[in-house]
Amino acid sequence: MKKIKALCYTKGHFGKNIREILNTDNKNLYSMGRYPTKIVKEDLPEYYIEFSSRTIWYMTGYLKTAGVVDIEYEATKINHLFKDDYLYISYKEKLKSCQNRWGSKDYMNYDICICGNSIVPILLYIEKYSDFNIDKIKDKIYGKIKWFKENCENEYNQFFANKDTDIFQYYKDKMVNNQLY
Question: Which of 50, 29, 4, 7 lies closest to 179, judged by CA?
C-alpha cells in the first residue's frame, strides 16, 4: 500500500524558473508540486478533489479535503467571479489573521491557499469529508455573488446564462455531470 500523506498532489512539478512547470504528462504525481512519488491519481482516497488554481500555475492538482480544521475565504470585488478570490485552509489549527505589508487582511498559518473557480467545489468536498461547518464561508460567497450580479451584470449573465443561480447548486450539478474541468 502506498503512503498518501501530502495535502496536495500535482500532475507535474514546479521548475527552477518562475511560473515554470515540468513533466505534466507523467502519470505519477508530485507531492506539493515538488517531490516525485509513485502515487497515481487512482491511488488517492475519495476525499481528494481534482482542482486547478493559479497557486499551482494551473497544473492539475488533487487536494485533501478531509481533516480540515479551519478555512477562510477572502473575496476580491473585481470584474470576474473567483479568479482573484482566496480560500485559506488549515489542517492543524485555527487560522490567525494579520495585515500584510500593503495593509490588506491576510492569514499567517494556513497550510494551503487556493484561488480561482475551484473554490466552491473544494468547499463542497470539505463539507462532505471534514467535520467543519462551511455556512459562514457560504454566506461570504453568496455576498460575492450578489455583489458580482449588481456590479458586473454582463459578466454575471455570461457565467450563468442570464439566470438567477445558486452557486453551490451550480457546482454540484457540474460535479455530478463531470463538467468541472
Answer: 50
pTM of this structure = 0.89
Instruction: Report pLDDT digits (tens) over 24-61.
Output: 888 999 999 889 999 999 999 999 999 988 777 777 89
- The answer to whether 45 touches 125, Cβ cutoff 8 Å, is no
Spatial CB neighbours of 125, under 8 Å, sequence gap ≥ 6: 47, 49, 63, 65
Report the amino acid identity of residue 143: G
Whether 73 contacts 137, CB under 8 Å: yes
R_g of the chain computed on alpha carbons: 17
| CB contact at 8 A, 8 and 61 | yes
Q: How far is it, in rounded angstroms, from Cα 16 to Cα 88?
A: 25
Query: Quick one: DSSP state of residue 162?
Result: T
Q: Where are the beta strands (DSSP E) in the chain?
A: 8-10, 13-14, 21-22, 28-31, 35-40, 48-52, 60-64, 70-74, 86-90, 97-99, 105-107, 112-115
59-74 pLDDT, tens digit per residue, is 789 999 999 999 999 9
Read off the DSSP letter of residue 139: H
